[in-house]
Write a structure and sequence with these properties.
Blueprint: E1 15-16, H1 30-39, E2 44-47, H2 56-66, E3 69-80, E4 83-90, H3 97-123, H4 129-137, H5 145-154, H6 161-169, E5 182-183, H7 184-193, E6 197-200, H8 209-222, E7 227-232, H9 237-249, E8 253-257, H10 289-296
Parallel strand pairs: 1-2, 2-3, 3-5, 6-7, 7-8
Antiparallel strand pairs: 3-4, 4-6
């Protein structure tokens, strides 16, 4: 019998809808990520690797063993008005051809960017960064800035990964490279076409200002976007309240995610997210248990 998944703010269910594995730039394999989630009391977890869905099959098998409901997810890199945004797809069908093909194209672009980053660092006198980043990437099919950051930190160029980003990999620094990703409309189309819901990840991180933020949310809604991350490891308490109010006013669902990458690199551990503010409508409020479970074991 099909029944609605109704989760109140006082529910004992522990939900995290934003996490990464070694398939993109996380530190734990999909299996180890699910095991860690279980050890932290997580009941519902979305694996949302950057521009890749290759870890979902392994994650599904471990989710069954750990008695966790896995949400098929992905975090898509988007260019909007010359800015990079991340759009999460939740409850996607990873076999949807336009989604799979689009993600493959983005990954090809990531390799082009990685080569450009290495060239920039080489000019700065830091040699061998591409090989070093590739070694850090391991099984991942893509090389991201985090892999460069881990290599640079391991070579003593900064005290930790977060410091590397500030010193080398952001705009105006030696290893920064501009890149054009897919469009907002394409990302949302891929997600919706696969049966999923599109969510703006960690919106405070983009530092858009009130006017641009309003424009982004309006366009996002018009294109069929479903929600925004209200609770995020990137958000202060004040920003959480701000985005809770915006979600309510714009009639958007609220999501929550730790953006977990691994021990020592994440502000929040899995299972340690604060609750959504009470005025929010959770993105899972109309999900059905049978539908979720069916998708998690495909």
């Amino acid at each position: 019998m099909m029944r609605n998944l109704v989760i109140t703010h006082s529910s004992m269910l522990n939900i995290d809808l934003h996490s990464h594995s070694t398939i993109s730039d996380g530190m734990l394999s999909p299996s180890r990520l699910l095991a860690h989630a279980a050890s932290r009391g997580v009941n519902i977890l979305a694996l949302t690797d950057h521009d890749d869905i290759a870890g979902l099959s392994e994650a599904r098998h471990r989710a069954l063993q750990e008695n966790i409901t896995l949400i098929n997810g992905v975090e898509i890199s988007v260019t909007w008005r010359s800015r990079t945004l991340h759009i999460i797809g939740l409850r996607i069908n990873p076999e949807h051809p336009p989604l799979a093909d689009g993600l493959e194209e983005i990954r090809d672009g990531r390799m082009d960017r990685a080569q450009a980053i290495a060239a920039q660092l080489d000019k700065y006198g830091i040699h061998g960064s591409l090989e070093g980043a590739r070694a850090q990437a391991g099984e991942s099919r893509l090389i991201g800035r985090t892999h460069f950051a881990r290599f640079l930190a391991s070579q003593g160029y900064a005290k930790d990964v977060k410091s590397v980003f500030k010193k080398f990999l952001v705009k105006g620094k030696p290893g920064h490279v501009s890149h054009v990703w897919t469009s907002l409309s394409e990302a949302i189309d891929w997600i919706r076409g696969s049966g999923g819901q599109a969510v703006i990840a960690h919106p405070a991180r983009y530092k858009l200002g009130n006017n641009l933020l309003e424009q982004l949310l309006s366009e996002f809604c018009e294109l069929g976007g479903a929600g925004i991350e209200v609770v995020s490891s990137s958000h202060t308490s004040e920003q959480t309240r701000q985005f809770a109010q915006l979600a309510s006013r714009m009639n958007l669902y609220a999501s929550c995610g730790s953006d977990y990458h691994g021990p020592g690199e994440s502000y929040f551990d899995l299972g340690r997210l604060p609750a959504l503010p009470p005025e929010c409508t959770p993105i899972w409020s109309e999900w059905k248990i049978s539908d979720i479970q069916k998708k998690s074991i495909q």
